Amino acid sequence: MSVVDEVKARLDIVDVVSGYVHLQKAGRNFKALCPFHHEKTPSFVVFPETQTWRCFGACGEGGDVFGFVMKAEGWDFGEALRNLAKRAGVELTPLTPAQQQQVTEHERLQGLIEEAARFFHQQLLEAPAAETVRAYVAGRGLRAETVTAFQLGYAPDDWHQAMQHLQMLGYTQDEIVEAGIAIRNEQGNVYDRFRHRLMIPIRDARGRTVGFGARALEKDAVPKYLNSPQSPLFDKGRLLYGLDRARRAIRETETAVIVEGYMDVLQAHQAGFANVVAQMGTALTEDQLRQLSRYARRLILALDPDVAGTTATMRGLNVARETLQTDGAVTFDPRGVMRYTGTLELDIRVITLPEGHDPDDLIRENPQAWKELLERAIPVAEYVIQRGTAHLTPQSSYQEREQAARALLPLLTLTESDIERSGNIQALARRVRIDERTLLQWTQRRRAERVRAVPTVREQRRLAERPAPAVRAGRSPGHSALREGFCLRLLLEQPERLYAANRLLRELQNGEAWLSEVLAPLKPEDFTRPDYQAIFRVLLQALYQHEMEPVDYFYAHLSPELRQVVEELRVAPEEELEQALPRPLRAELRSIRREQARLNAQPEADIRVWLREVLALRLRFLEREWNEFYFLQQDAQLLSGDLTGAGYHEALRANIRARLILTKALSRVKTQSPSW
Q1: What is the pLDDT of residues 36-48, one digit of tens each?
Q2: How would you classify the pairing of strands 182-184 and 153-155?
Q3: Are the beta carbons of 337 and 380 closer than 8 angstroms?
Q4: Cα distances (Å, whole numbers) of residue 351 to 264, 523, 560
Q5: Which residues contact 559 (CB under 8 A, 6 or more apart)?
Q6: Per the CB 3.0–4.6 Å rule, which of 196, 305, 389, 510 could disulfide with 157?
Q7: Could you tell me which residues come within 8 angstroms of residue 164 by beta carbon, excluding any fewer than 6 positions away?
Q8: Cis omega before residue 223 (within 30°)?
Q9: Is residue 48 within 8 Å of 54, Cβ to Cβ?
Q10: pLDDT in tens, 236-255
Q11: pLDDT one-digit tens code per residue, 568-590
Q12: What is the pTM of this model?
């Protein structure tokens, strides 16, 4: 993952933009008066789902978090990167050759996992051997659209089929083993890790597949669930199953419901409860909690009612207490709700499922009962007392009651309010039948011990001088970002290619002036990465100025950060960049370059590849714009201004028409030599 991707992954555009304008909730999005021009009705919209913004008024501009702060502060890309990286806690250091190699390897592994997910999904849908599996899925009440949305799959009952499929795509055995799709035994033999299992792709919060959860299809198979092994791409402690599809609903409801199993999430989303996610381990982790706090103000723990579920809940609550305690004060309000009074505010509640039911069963049998259960979720303080003292009876000894009280006091007294602390102690005192003053003395003694445990000034200085922990590597850029890099590299190799691209886009307008905006010359917004946008802007300036040679102007006006990106694109092996292309086009490009070498031809010989990438670049931009239109259309009744007026409908019509034109042009460029 590049530094830019890491910064964007850690920051929420809603939080950043709200520091400049007053945002109001409008359906799944946020609206405001545009900060970049004077207006009386809101036309500025922030899209949390895509982490982008757009002005539908006089500005007509949009972009991501980088584009917003650059425009708001007047910063160049380097300044924006330094400031946002500081806010996100990302250290800006140049990549060493070893780190660059690691990034390249991660990108390739991520592509491998995506291919494996497609293979397993295709097997489930079409393989004759998967007929019983399709029946099993249907028997679990999962509809076809759910299977497709979550890309459920089937691992054939074969030792080498998945591996052989991936090898045919060019991946090596070592790569397939490293990605967790295959295993190498002590004798050196390699075979498929997943066999005759229902495959459940696991995605990160941004929707990129990083691993699998595989459910056994035979009753006596062990283990029941087999996950991908821990790797740089797959880290159970940082993942929440379903978060990529639940983010929008969580933000809308400001509530995240946390369950234990994959099937629980599938059934919940299918029934319309789209704010449900599943923890990947036996308890919530610090990373999982912090991810959810970006979208939700309330967490509801909906875990199984058995002993294991109760234990997991209590462990999760302790993780929450320890995590939130590090940066601010955790408090219980007068209703017994745990709140974090620092930079977060989390209302953590718990529901107890009926005996013998898990969320999967309950939602299938009675969705209304599940809804009512969520509405009756009890404050965590009440749950802590209930569960922490459930084993006590009137005959329990004083020692047993004391032990229970001492175990619960840390959770119940972490508050700055004497009134709240007193209320929790009173409730606990009644339950354990120990005098309230005694519990208070234990609490005061424990707090005094904590004060004595504070490091000395010398120890604090020594700790402060320790180097900061390195930021963990995240996911690599996706397929679209790789293709953008390939496109930009072609342009950097020969900037004059831009003229051919703009000529093609102009001719595709076919004299229809109303398409001039959607089929305008290539522009920075066609790229999604802000560093690529900034490089393209400098390149445009270089080509259309007359003071210096374009190449001299280009490098003279690149910031150090952008110069590094350009150098990385220039020195990257062509084979690596080719991986971003579809396989048919990749083969075509290689054929063209072989012909170039044989005839000593000029680089213009691969103009067909360049023009195809330009058309695909603009098509992806229009698809992103279409998604914004769709969200606005869904929320039209909540938005004021002219967002759904004539201008909106004109833009919508132009988008549809342009996408049709580009799709046809892509097909034509693929099959015919260009005449432009």
Answers
A1: 877 788 888 998 8
A2: unpaired
A3: yes
A4: 15, 51, 53
A5: 76, 77, 78, 534
A6: 196
A7: none
A8: yes
A9: no
A10: 888 999 998 998 788 778 89
A11: 777 655 555 555 555 655 665 56
A12: 0.56
